[in-house]
Specification:
This protein has helices spanning 15-26, 38-43, 64-72, 89-97, 110-142, 146-156, 161-168, 172-186, 191-201, and strands at residues 7-11, 31-35, 51-56, 80-84, 102-105. The chain is an alpha/beta fold. Helix 4 links the parallel strand 4 (80-84) and strand 5.
Length: 214
């Protein structure tokens, strides 16, 4: 199995359930690791690959909902599919509001679980792609000089080069040159793309304090 191969993690305190889920998930060509408790799952090293967590709600020690909350507070969040034999409406609503992909009550249809797993893996793959893009975008932004960041904020505010120059106390020619530099550094093909990049970075327009970068 390559490092990028999808991996499904199963946490359930019932050995027979773990074995059954291992066989089912393996039968469709997916990698699977099983754990008897939330604590064991947290102690394990996980591969850097798309995946999801199939999680029993009621576990000894740290419950499934507690584990969901703990993962949400870290950068290691995974799409979660909850399994329970004791589900109720409030528990399901709480799990789904916290971002669970699915909440299945035992006994469940195997195909329903496999469909949920495929959906969760695709969601995680997309989220990982978004995170990589954001990291790259931040790296590009960090390469800008303080004055180039000032010009970027002016562009985000919808100002023309002449207006940005007035705000910064410099010449329009200088602003045009700095604008070209920052466009190349940010790898933006258009002003519209640059504005979208700025929005992803949380950069807001600032007209009166151009010397302070975001």
């Amino acid at each position: 199995m390559t490092p990028a191969s999808p991996m499904v993690f199963v946490v359930d305190d019932d050995a027979s359930v773990r074995d059954g889920l291992r066989r089912l998930i393996s039968s469709v060509g997916l990698g699977v690791e099983v754990f008897a408790s939330a604590q064991a799952f947290l102690r394990a090293r996980r591969p850097d690959a798309p995946g999801c967590l199939v999680l029993d709600v009621r576990l000894p020690g740290l419950s499934g909902l507690d584990l969901q909350r703990e993962l949400a507070d870290t950068d290691a969040a995974l799409p979660i599919i909850f399994l329970t034999g004791h589900g109720d409406v409030p528990m399901s609503v709480r799990a789904m509001k916290a971002g669970a992909v699915e909440f299945l009550t035992k006994p469940f249809r195997e195909q329903d679980l496999l469909d949920a797993i495929r959906n969760a893996i695709e969601r995680d793959r997309a989220a990982r792609g978004d995170r990589r893009e954001l990291i790259e975008l931040r790296s590009r932004y960090e390469s800008l000089t303080p004055r180039e960041r000032d010009v970027l904020r002016g562009i985000v505010a919808g100002l023309l080069n002449k207006q940005i120059a007035g705000e910064l106390g410099t010449s329009e020619v200088t602003v045009k040159e700095q604008r070209g530099h920052l466009m190349r550094k940010m790898e933006a093909g258009s002003v519209a793309e640059l504005v979208r990049q700025a929005a992803r970075l949380g950069i807001t327009p600032a007209r009166r304090s151009p010397s302070r970068p975001t």
